[in-house]
Amino acid sequence: MIANALFNTVVLCKYPQYATNAPATTANQEAAGWLRRNPAVARKVGGAVVSAAVSSQSAAAGGGGGAAAGGSAAGSSWI
């Protein structure tokens, strides 16, 4: 444990943003910046999110996974 604490101290002291007191960015800001620099990936991720939302809505309405689709009708709840 002591070795790990010493290692963490060295890493923190050598970290460039720690040493210069540069403004830190949040994970959300980093992700937004990365998606801005990679618009093709952003479109692909956006399409996957919309597709998942649509499929989730149809499943919640009873459109998927019921007895007709090969699932069990008894006790089937997504919540």
Outline the structure in words.
By secondary structure, the protein is mainly alpha-helical. The chain starts with a helix and ends in a 19-residue tail after the last helix. Helices cover 65% and strands 0% of the residues. It is built from four helices and no strands. It has helices spanning 2-14, 16-20, 27-37, 39-60. The mean pLDDT is 78.
Gyration radius, rounded:
23 Å
What is the string of SSEs from the N terminus onward? HHHH
Approximately how much beta-strand content do the residues carry? Answer: under 5%
Number of strands: 0
Distance between the termini: 42 Å
**How many helical stretches?**
4
Query: Main β-sheet, in a few words?
Result: none
Low-confidence stretches: none
Cα shape: elongated
Offer a quick outline of the entry.
With 79 residues, this protein is an all-alpha fold. The protein is built from four helices and no strands.
Topology of helices and strands:
Elements: H1 2-14, H2 16-20, H3 27-37, H4 39-60
Which key terms come to mind for this protein?
79 residues, mainly alpha, elongated
